[in-house]
């Protein structure tokens, strides 16, 4: 309905609406309860490979290193893909250069381990816990895209899977986001 003279406004309006949509989508995702009846025994590597292939759309190098023959994990596939997507999109948004995604097995925790690592600025030690709170954003993220819900969603989903998530600044620089998902006794190899 806008006249041609107002054309220059359109792009800005569309961008703002897209940003608002993304925030609303994140909020709905945060409130969503994933049903435990949707839990199935899944191969983590397949899920990680699927998400990494979707995230190739950002034209960033994502190095993938999967450990062969991991035990299966009882999980909600849609929810776990959300966890991985949020982890990878943070690495893309807050760093430049290559990102590395890897899977492995922690004997100590009897859990499958998923790591997303970047070479960005990392997170100040004093904020490593608080960034998991809903709507908490770091200084560099304020006023830009995003709602500060990504990590809160990750934490909620991982916790409902009986797992843990932690963020760690890497010695060589950058952030390591690590998720541990426990393996059921019957499916352990
Ligand atoms: N890989 C990373 N490197 C550096 N800082 C990060 C990284 N991931 C998250 N952060 C910091 O943690 C804050 C919270 O992250 P979170 O994913 O919860 O929210 P967001 O990315 O700001 O918004 P949303 O994920 O809802 O779009 C970010 O604002 C950013 O400051
Ligand atoms: Mg985020």
UniProtKB/TrEMBL annotation:
It is found in: Cell inner membrane. SUPFAM superfamilies: ATPase domain of HSP90 chaperone/DNA topoisomerase II/histidine kinase. Residues 1-185 form the Histidine kinase domain. The keyword Zinc-finger does not apply. Its main location: membrane. GO terms for cellular component: plasma membrane. Keywords: Cell inner membrane, Cell membrane, Kinase, Membrane, Transferase, Transmembrane, Transmembrane helix, Two-component regulatory system. Its EC number is 2.7.13.3. GO terms for molecular function: phosphorelay sensor kinase activity. It catalyses: ATP + protein L-histidine = ADP + protein N-phospho-L-histidine. It is a multi-pass membrane protein. This is histidine kinase. It comes from Pseudoalteromonas citrea.
């Amino acid at each position: 309905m806008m006249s041609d003279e107002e054309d220059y406004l359109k792009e800005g309006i569309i961008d703002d609406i897209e940003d608002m949509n993304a925030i609303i989508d994140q909020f709905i995702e945060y409130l969503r309860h994933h049903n435990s009846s949707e839990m199935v025994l899944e191969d983590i590597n397949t899920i990680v490979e699927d998400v990494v292939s979707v995230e190739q759309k950002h034209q960033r190098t994502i190095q993938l290193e999967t450990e062969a023959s991991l035990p299966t994990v009882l999980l909600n596939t849609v929810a776990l893909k959300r966890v991985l997507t949020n982890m990878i999109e943070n690495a893309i948004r807050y760093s430049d250069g290559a990102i590395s995604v890897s899977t492995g097995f922690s004997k100590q925790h009897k859990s499958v381990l998923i790591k997303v690592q970047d070479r960005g600025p990392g997170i100040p030690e004093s904020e490593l816990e608080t960034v998991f709170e809903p709507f908490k954003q770091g200084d560099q993220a304020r006023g830009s895209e995003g709602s500060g819900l990504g990590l809160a969603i990750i934490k909620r989903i991982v916790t409902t899977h009986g797992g843990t998530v932690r963020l760690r600044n890497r010695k060589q620089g950058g952030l390591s986001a690590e998720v541990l998902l426990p393996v059921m006794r019957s499916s352990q190899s």
